[in-house]
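Fold this: Amino acid ABC transporter permease
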Amino acid sequence: MSSAATDERAEGRGRGRIASFLLDDHRYVLLGTSAMALVGMLLSSSPRPALSFLAPAFTVELVLYYVLAAWLVLSAVALVYKLTHWRTYAEVAPFVRPGARRALRYLSYVIWAVALVFVADRVVMGFASAWQVATTAADRPADEFLTNLLWMFWTGRQTYLTGIYTTIALAVFGTVIAFFLALLLVFCRIQAVDRPDNDFVRFWKVVGRGFAKVYSTVVRGTPMMVQGMIIYYGVVGFIQATGSYSGAELNRIWSPFIAGLVTVSLNSTAYMMEVLRGGIAAVDSGQMEAARSLGLSQWQAMRKVVFPQGIKNSIPGLSNELVINIKDSSVLSMISVFDLTFAARTIGGNYYEYFPAYLVAAVIYLVLTSIATSLLGRGARHFDVKPQPVGGTADQGLVSGEE
């Protein structure tokens, strides 16, 4: 069975468990609904926002509050009964009878609906109220954290957008460039001296394989932030030493964005090379032997037989590198790349309030990585490969073929 079909069956089982939890009579109805009832009561006790739709209906809100409280009392009675009839609860408790369990499940729907009303009134309308104040205030509101955070986001939205565009460009273009460089380096990395090779070919195979190994070791063994500083300031120093350039001319020749793109590309190349090498190593060795027995050269066998299968095996790890680059490009703000992190630092510095600015950046990073993960997961299923969980480095799970 293909991995795509397996994933679909797993998703179907997950949906089935959720449906069973909601529609079947089971022992956790009281406990699970009590947690939601408690949340609703806590929200009801909180201050009403300006746009609260329950504000004109105090009596209705009071009735809803006592409905939730009644459910908690009922749950407490069931808990006490269970503690006092621990051994015989399943046989003698009125709460486990079929009719009672069905009635409790229907009542739980009412409790969830009431709690969701309070969530909508306090949380959703509270956010809407804060957003209304933030987008219409002429000066910075200092009375509430959420309003202040939204105001900083609204007033600095163009700065955030610039940072988002730069972050996406660095991640996308850096990953694409790294992929082609990784193809070249992995070809050098897996080269083996063949009997028909002359001395010239043998020499370059050994040199190419050694360079790829050293490159992978150095790049994966040093932080991207340090690499970015070395690349940016090293080239700046070289350009300044070879001619007289003003700051504007130097920035046109070697801007922080170009240095950041080079850093992301070279850093990702090392990881993607190892992912590709792991994918190629996962291809059955009989594939190469069969291709060579049909008269194909080593290069032809690699290009037409082994490489296509190895790339398919590597798709989850390769695509995961895009998500990693979205997050790790944040370190390039240290060389003044105007990415999302640099934008948050700029806005925080303008208002001397860094926590809300970075909190907004964290939410945006989460949205970007979630979208990328969803799109890459669909792409992986299209190629009938299992998506790789996001969160680790790109070379995790690789190293069958490590020398």
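Residues 98-136 form the longest helix (39 residues). The chain has 15 helices and no strands.
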